[in-house]
TrEMBL record, chain A:
Its main location: nucleus. Keywords: Nucleus, Transcription, Transcription regulation. This is Transcription initiation factor TFIID subunit 2. Residues 1112-1121 have a biased composition (Basic and acidic residues). Residues 622-980 form the Transcription initiation factor TFIID subunit 2 TPR repeats domain. Residues 1071-1140 are annotated as: Disordered. Residues 1122-1140 have a biased composition (Polar residues). Residues 1084-1111 have a biased composition (Basic residues).
UniProtKB/TrEMBL annotation, chain B:
This is Transcription initiation factor TFIID subunit 8. It is found in: Nucleus. InterPro entries: BTP (IPR006565), Histone-fold (IPR009072), TAF8 (IPR037818), TFIID_su8_C (IPR019473). It comes from Hucho hucho (huchen). Belongs to the TAF8 family. Residues 24-101 form the Bromodomain associated domain. GO terms for biological process: transcription initiation at RNA polymerase II promoter.
Length: 1140, 301
């Protein structure tokens, strides 16, 4: 059992709240090996006051190698070096490998009891002051008490980040039960995992203590906390579900949550399993790290998901977020993962059942559209960046091959992944689950899930000693075994292709019809040489729509066969007036005049069910695409044909698209897509286009008054399909261009009239999104100004049309100040429009407006839009001032999401790239970015990876070219396994050679003068060792790192007794592996920290913190034997050779 | 005096119809003034302020008018139309004037003779506006009865214009009205507050109201504005479903000031309990709705 007590301090009356936490943790450990004399825990940024083991003071060492990845003095600036060092640093504290930042020496008095395997109770007192990660304090700067100000705090993090706010074994595979106590101000509510047992006032009645008990074994990484003056809503349908939101938002919460019970019902029904926890809590917080994060029995959401009944667009999005959160409650929180390599199973299952929910709630069309969207997104990413590997295997040091040499980061740890990669990883995971479903049927699939859940819930009610808890962890192996047990099918090849291997398949298809043989000669080629692609061998489904009906054919893709002959069924040439049967059994009349008289083929589709992770480029005649668009009922086929028709700007295409637009049975997203395609076609057909501008008459017919066609009807958004179409059409129309490449005057006036006559008074829904899209339409209509030399843009030479546009934008933006729209959608659109006006040279390019909107204190969407404009300005104007301003914000902004967003936007729209020269690219910038990723972002894994990404985009993998040659001609390049001359000359190399293996921490031990008994040490890889030696030396050589910035890094080492400074050689632990740290330098270090600590302590006393901790027993039970599959278990029994 | 005369004469020439009545009155008024002046002289005043004379004139005119009015009333009371001497005497008596003294006063020696007012035409009664044809009496009404008044006095005569019901114009009007209001309002706000500008050369063109960071930006961005709420109520008031409201009254400690009054902070939490008890069958057992416990005495080891 794991117990945490925390006193969260937020002082009233002080101008600046302290934002601090004081707490203690008590872990109960069941040693499984005899000589447990050293315990390793994860802890970051916590200031640890004392550690006691079974009431004996225990010495400890705190060393966080990820604080500063590469040595401060190092002149190394190449990313390869950084990546390997970072991976090594993360590995060095990887809890799955038994490592940790905090090493506690078990007092020797307790050693000899080893035989009896006595329970050890580890008690740690710690505090957190102004934490930079892990916990986020939101304290609005207004008058009043903390509660009146809506001040709140919540835990956050990317993957296992619990170590940021209390010392723990921060792994998803270390389960234990929990008792949590939080003492907070009486006006606050503390929401955490498990059941709230009671709430008790403190003796002075100023504070309350919330007592939580979580009897279900849960990993520390799934523990969360949020505290604030929340308004409480008990779900009217399910009383064990409680919702929390910030003050004043209760009406929105009521509406937004009114749907949650249906999601519950859905999941419980398909999984035939009750929700595993006895309660569920949803908390909506401001400045959320991500929109949705799930923890054991609670989920933390962004407050911006809340909406009123008037809002259309946000409603499905919010429901989707809820559904995702709930799916992760089952798979992710209740069932946890064995190791990082098994993450894909959990993400896959939760994503898959979320997909089932989508299908049921939003319909099959929406579901298939979503699958296609996800597939396209993922395929695009893999083709661009190289493959995404779901189940990386790191062959225990023997396999030196990096599974992903194409990436500039290591995928060995979640904390080294780029955020985008992780998103694509999740995407691929659920797509692969869908492939498995295709293979074994949904029924079996759900049975497998049910089996996993029922095993887990049986295990969860058992005592720790029963060694059953490992059933609550899922691994790739156990998952696959379940599948084969349940279905009896072998999905090995599928797993091998998509899970154990990265990359996707790229097909090119074309065909010819052989009239004599009445055979369709289909040619399917593959590109498996370019990056991100793999070769596919196996079945592929082809659907051929002929005059006589639709036929499925399964072809075998083999090594060398490209051509496939498919016999056609339709013998008859053309049977006039006969209805044509479609795949779904429907029979329709078609005008067949467009088709080739000799061929019975209407259209052909390759892999229509998306049962391969692929990209298909298929060639067929334009009329076939048109038939496909009109008559194929699958939305995916319709969307594919819309995309294809862009290349066929003919009146027939135009007609097909217009017909689709008018057909209200057609899925609205297809119709939206048709709008944009029609605009493109119209532009290509500019010279032959007849009639009014595309879509204008259609829009008039659908949405304008009968009596006065220039005036739009008053808004009535009851029909959502029409609403979405009404929103989209003007935006697409604005993309039309005339012969001068300007937006036709007609169209512009039309849009201006839409804005003018917009009347929402009779509408029950808000029109904010519609108005925002009308502004977007104005933005789309903009074309570059005719520039006469490089004159300064002034009001006087403003083009007349632009003046009208600008007037609308000004008015809308100003009105937003008086009557703000939901999520400030209109401000967002206006900011984009202004940037576009600047970019096109209509108004002077100036970032100051955007910078003011980007400041903290605006709604997050507005900030992001403004920052996007600043990023764009930085690139276009190559402004180093703005770049500095942005980077400054990355370091200092209170909102983590904004920091992340800036870096990812800079990565997407970089001020320069490694390919091009730029005045911005200079040594100072390199140093700055290097510092940012090296030490400036140690509090947020995601941000550090963002910084790495940006560095990669700007400078590539090798030493940035703008740097002067290193002073030493000879550089020890650890990646290259050798000393090389100036690495700037070296071409880029994948970081593969630097890949660390799971046991690497063992490698450095010999250097320290110890011998290691670990049999997995790979002494054959000298380069790896070197990297590690080097790295480790770095660690040792910077005694001052934590101490240097004590204010910034409160995670200092605190020693209770000076003698603990002694170096502590490794002793075996059950699941805590050894770490050897060395002596002399550390001792100095410790003194330093000790003093520092003393100083802080005094300060604390001044503030008169009184914490009455109730000491209760809590125990963290662990037994590595239980987890036979745990990576830690392999090393659990170690020889005591290195004990003191 | 002369100039006055000439003035009135001139004005009399100027305006034919209306001034004849004026002239008539002016002439008599002037006579009254002469009367007052002579009475003053008689009493021994050598001079008098014009205003005084004017006031006295006004008083005397009122007195005479009142005498006339009362006399007429008396005469009409007795169903006559022309007052007689006795009517006048009764009136004077009624007003507290001793009629017996009148002959003596009239014959006093120092009285001054006043010229009669100049002869002016009696004022012409202006013709009533004749609008339309007067109706003749219907047959059952004897002809001696008064004539019908002018038709305009009893016939509806609409004076407003037909309201514009053309949809297009209405929309047009509503749109431009709204736009004008918005523009005026935003211009006003821009003029009276800080602004940001898109142009450097002319900061007044397209003024943007300066953004102002808010401490709690999500509130204004998420909560519907009052205007929207109003619209919602108008369009759909039936949809409200507040059934759950009473059950879920949150433990709202927001307004507590724990520093000042600790006891108070207990109340809201406790306040929920009776509420829940009211609807016993709907009772929700949710740990967050339970009252906060008082600390136990010394639970420490």
């Amino acid at each position: 059992m794991h117990e945490i007590k925390m006193n969260r301090k937020k002082d009233k009356g002080f101008e600046s709240p302290r934002k601090s936490v004081i707490g203690f943790v008590e872990l109960t450990i069941f040693p499984t090996v005899v000589n447990l004399n050293r315990i390793k825990l994860n802890s970051k940024q916590c200031r640890i006051y004392r550690v006691r083991v079974n009431d004996l003071e225990a010495p400890f060492i705190y060393n966080d190698p990820t604080l500063e990845v590469c040595h401060h003095e190092s002149k190394q600036r190449n990313l390869n070096y950084f990546s390997s060092a970072y991976t090594a640093a993360v590995s060095a504290v990887d809890p799955d490998a038994g490592h940790g930042e905090l090493v506690i020496k078990v007092p020797s008095e307790l050693w000899k009891q080893g035989d009896e395997m006595n329970v050890l109770k580890v008690y740690i007192e710690f505090s957190l002051d102004q934490p930079k990660g892990g916990l986020h304090f939101v304290v609005p700067d207004v008058e009043g008490s903390m509660a009146e100000r809506g001040a709140h705090v919540f835990s956050f993090g990317y993957q296992n980040s619990t170590r940021f706010w209390f010392p723990c074994v921060d792994s998803y595979s270390e389960l234990c039960t929990w008792k949590l106590e939080f003492t907070v101000d009486a006006s606050m509510v503390a929401v955490s995992c498990g059941d709230l047992v009671e709430t008790v006032y403190t003796h002075d009645m100023r504070k309350k203590t919330f007592h939580y008990v979580l009897p279900i074994p849960t990993a520390a990484s799934n523990i969360s906390l949020s505290v604030g003056p929340f308004e409480i809503l008990v779900d009217p349908y399910m009383h064990e579900v409680t919702h929390f939101c910030l003050p004043q938002l209760l009406p929105l919460l009521k509406h937004s949550m009114s749907y949650l019970h249906e999601i519950f019902e859905f999941y419980e029904e398909i999984l035939t399993c009750r929700y595993p926890y006895s309660c569920f809590k949803t908390v909506f917080v401001d400045e959320a790290y991500v929109q949705v994060s799930s923890y054991a029995s609670m989920s933390i959401f962004s407050t911006n998901l809340l909406h009123s009944a008037m809002i259309i667009d946000q409603t499905p999005l919010t429901r989707q977020c809820l559904a995702q959160a709930l799916a992760q409650q089952f798979f992710g929180c209740f069932i946890s993962r064995m190791s990082w390599a098994d993450e894909w199973v959990l993400k896959g299952i939760s994503g898959y059942i979320y997909g089932l929910y989508l299908k049921k709630t939003f319909g099959v069309n929406q579901y298939r559209h979503w699958i296609k969207e996800e597939l396209d997104k993922m395929v695009e990413y893999e083709l661009k960046m190289g493959g995404v590997l779901l189940h990386p295997t790191f062959g225990g040091g023997k396999d030196k091959d990096n599974p992903t040499p194409h990436l500039h980061f290591s995928i060995k740890h979640p904390h080294t992944l780029s955020w985008k990669y992780y998103k694509m990883f999740q995407c691929k995971a659920h797509l692969v689950m869908r492939l498995i479903e295709n293979r074994i049927s949904m029924e079996f699939m759900l049975q497998v899930f049910n089996k996993l859940l029922s095993l887990a819930s049986t295990a969860s009610s058992q005592k720790y000693q029963s060694h059953m808890w490992s059933q609550m962890l899922v691994s790739t192996h156990s998952f696959l075994k379940s599948i084969s047990n349940v279905s009896g099918k072998d999905i090995g090849p599928l797993i091998k292709q998509w899970v154990d291997q990265s990359a996707v398949v790229k097909f090119f298809g074309s065909f010819a019809f052989n009239r004599k043989r009445n055979v369709l000669e289909l040619e399917i080629r593959q590109d498996y040489t370019s990056s991100g692609t793999q070769k596919y061998v196996g079945p592929i489904k082809v659907t051929v729509q002929e005059l006589d009906g639709s036929f499925n054919h399964t072809l075998q893709i083999e090594e060398n066969s490209l051509k496939h002959d498919i016999p056609c069924h339709s013998k008859s040439r053309r049977n006039k007036k006969k209805k044509i049967p479609l795949m779904n059994g429907e029979e329709v009349d078609m005008d067949l005049s467009a088709m080739d008289a000799d061929s019975p083929l209407l259209w052909i589709r390759i892999d229509p069910d998306m049962s391969i992770l692929r990209k298909v480029e298929f060639e067929q005649a334009d009329f076939m695409w048109q038939y496909q668009l009109r008559y194929e009922r699958d939305v995916v086929a319709q969307e594919e044909s819309i995309l294809a028709l862009e290349k066929f700007p003919t009146p027939a295409s135009r007609l097909a698209l217009t017909d689709i637009l008018e057909q209200d049975q057609c899925f609205y997203k297809v119709r939206q897509g048709a709008c944009f395609c029609l605009a493109k076609i119209a532009n290509s057909m500019m010279s032959t286009w007849t009639g009014p501008p595309a879509m204008k008459s259609l829009f008039t017919r659908m949405f304008c008054c009968k009596s006065c066609p220039n005036i739009v009807k008053t808004n009535n958004f009851i029909s959502f399909q029409s609403y979405f179409l009404q929103k989209t059409m003007p935006v697409a129309m604005a993309q039309l261009r005339d012969i001068q490449n300007l937006c036709p005057k007609d169209v512009l006036n039309f849009i201006l009239d839409l804005i003018k006559y917009n009347d929402n008074r009779k509408n029950k829904f808000s029109d904010n999104y519609y108005r925002a899209e009308l502004i977007d339409a104005l933005t789309n209509s903009l074309t570059p100004a005719i520039s006469i030399s490089n004159e300064v843009r002034t009001v006087d030479n403003l083009n007349g049309d632009v003046r009208l546009i600008l007037e609308e934008i000004t008015r809308s933006l100003n009105m937003e100040k008086l009557l703000p729209s939901y999520r400030n959608t209109i401000t967002v659109s206006c900011l984009r429009a202004i940037r576009m006006l600047q970019k096109n040279g209509h108004i002077p390019s100036d970032p100051s407006l955007f910078k003011s909107y980007a400041e903290y204190g605006h709604f997050v969407d507005v900030r992001v839009a403004a920052l996007e404009a600043v990023v764009d300005y930085t690139r276009v104007d190559r402004s180093s001032v703005e770049l500095q301003w942005l980077l400054n914000m990355v370091q200092n902004d209170p909102a983590h999401y904004i920091r992340h967003k800036i870096l990812s936007m800079l990565g997407k729209n970089p001020p320069f790239t490694k390919a091009a020269e730029s005045p911005l690219c200079n040594e100072a910038l390199v140093d700055q970015l290097w510092k940012l990723m090296n030490s400036g972002t140690s509090h947020d894994w995601r941000l550090r990876c963002d910084a790495v990404n940006l560095y990669y985009t700007l400078f590539g993998l090798t030493r940035p070219s703008c740097l002067p040659l290193p002073e030493l001609g000879l550089v020890l390049n650890l990646k290259e396994k050798k000393a090389v001359l100036n690495p700037t000359i070296k071409p880029e190399q994948g970081p593969d050679t630097t890949q660390m293996t799971g046991n690497t921490m063992g490698v450095h031990i010999p250097v320290m003068g110890f011998t290691s008994s670990e049999d997995e040490i790979d002494m054959e890889s000298p380069h790896d060792s070197q990297a590690f030696i080097h790295h480790h030396l770095n660690i040792l050589e910077r005694p001052s790192t934590p101490g240097q910035h004590p204010a910034k890094h409160p995670a200092v080492i605190i020693l209770v007794h000076n003698w603990a400074v002694l170096s502590l050689p490794v002793t075996p632990l059950p699941s805590f592996s050894k770490e050897s740290t060395s002596s002399s330098k550390h001792s100095g270090d410790h003194h330093h920290h000790h003093h520092h600590h003393e100083h802080k302590k005094k300060k604390k006393k001044k503030h008169k913190h009184k914490h009455k901790h109730k000491h209760e027993s809590k125990d963290k039970e662990r037994d590595s034997h239980t987890f036979s599959n745990s990576p830690a278990s392999g090393r659990s029994v170690r020889s005591p050779s290195m004990s003191d | 005096m002369k100039s006055l005369m000439s003035n009135s004469a001139r004005s009399g020439c100027g305006k034919a119809t209306s001034s004849s009545a004026e002239n008539y009155q002016l002439a008599r008024r002037r006579t009254l003034q002469v009367v007052v002046s002579s009475l003053l002289t008689e009493c021994g005043f050598e001079s008098a302020e014009k205003a005084t004379v004017e006031s006295l004139t006004e008083m005397i005119q009122s007195y005479i008018s009142e005498v006339g009015r009362c006399a007429k009333a008396y005469c009409e009371h007795t169903a006559r139309i022309t007052p007689t001497l006795s009517d006048a005497v009764v009136t004077l008596n009624e007003m507290g004037f001793n009629v017996d003294t009148l002959p003596g006063y009239a014959k006093r020696s120092q009285r001054m003779v006043i010229t009669a007012p100049p002869v002016t035409n009696a004022p012409v009664i202006p013709k009533a506006l004749i609008a339309g044809q007067k109706r003749t009496h219907p047959s059952h009404i004897p002809s001696h009865f008064p004539e019908f008044p002018d038709p305009h006095t009893y016939i509806k005569t609409p004076t407003f214009r037909e309201p514009v019901s053309d949809y297009q114009v209405v929309r047009e009007k509503a749109a431009s009205q709204r736009r004008d209001v918005e523009r005026a309002l935003t211009r006003f706000m821009a003029k009276t507050g800080e602004t940001q500008s898109l142009f450097k050369d002319d900061v007044t063109a397209f003024p943007l109201i300066a953004e102002r960071p808010s401490s709690i930006p999500y509130l204004s961005a998420l909560l519907p504005s009052e205007l929207e709420l109003q619209t919602l109520e108008e369009t759909d008031s039936s949809e409200q479903d507040d059934q759950t409201d009473s059950e879920n009254t949150p433990v709202n400690n927001l307004n507590d000031d724990p520093g000042a009054d600790k006891e108070n902070s207990v109340l809201p939490a406790g306040g929920v309990v009776p509420l829940v008890k009211v609807s016993e069958e709907n009772m929700i057992d949710n740990p967050y709705l339970r009252p906060v416990k008082k600390p136990k005495v010394r639970r420490k080891k």
